């Protein structure tokens, strides 16, 4: 029996684990793959307060894991398939076992959203990627396309210029949505080009990405772009937003657009169940806000236990 079980080991979950364990609560952090969430795919974390120069996502997460471990939080790898949240004792049923707790913190995060065009799924890992840090090196001195116009798309495009000979940002509008400071850097970068008012409608290739069909959102005209003959392929990196990992809680917890609704104390509509990080309704999804969510959720979970169980 745990005091608190945290589902997800991204920045929000790890911060919750750190605060819960420090409060001497019996704490378990469950993660289905590996600790870190989306931030482990980020090459540079320059906007996290106090992060050292050239800090990377993996290095930041490694320290968070170390801190949670130091204070006694348990960590296990398992995929939760079913939850029972309404009773006084919450029950989580995973592939490897069943877990019980007095409170639950949901920190399941979000996953990259695909373009949704024909050929994308078949060519993922064969030219199509959602992680520049993971796959940039495969496109050394080749051409790559970045889909999206927000902060992450433009930042990843700049990172890709370290490897690719040319990077083209494909955006459905005629101007970027990224912060002005990020835009300025991109416009100054000689390796970055722009394909405005454009969407990718199909990705083609026999086992490897060889061409893509691009549609002009203004004229409706479609153009097929082929890989350079010498290269044989090119890269398409997709950064068009995220989908919250909340399907497990549909019909149980109040949501909005797939994101979990909470109050300022991270409380959901179910007593003893809290949410933190990218999976909840919020105006800014960044490492700094996820860790703040996690800290608040853990403190509130302790208060809930003290009151509900007369500790």
Automatic annotation (TrEMBL):
This entry's comment on the bound cofactor is: Binds 1 FAD per subunit.
* Hydrolase is among the record's keywords: no
PROSITE patterns in alphabetical order: PYRIDINE_REDOX_2
Q: Which top EC class applies here?
A: oxidoreductase
**Coiled coil start-end:** none
Q: So which cofactors does this thing need?
A: FAD
A GO molecular function term, named singly, is:
thioredoxin-disulfide reductase (NADPH) activity
FAD/NAD(P)-binding domain location is: 2-294
Its EC number(s): 1.8.1.9
Q: What is this protein called?
A: Thioredoxin reductase
- From which organism does this entry originate? Tissierella simiarum
Query: Which lineage?
Result: Bacteria, Bacillati, Bacillota, Tissierellia, Tissierellales
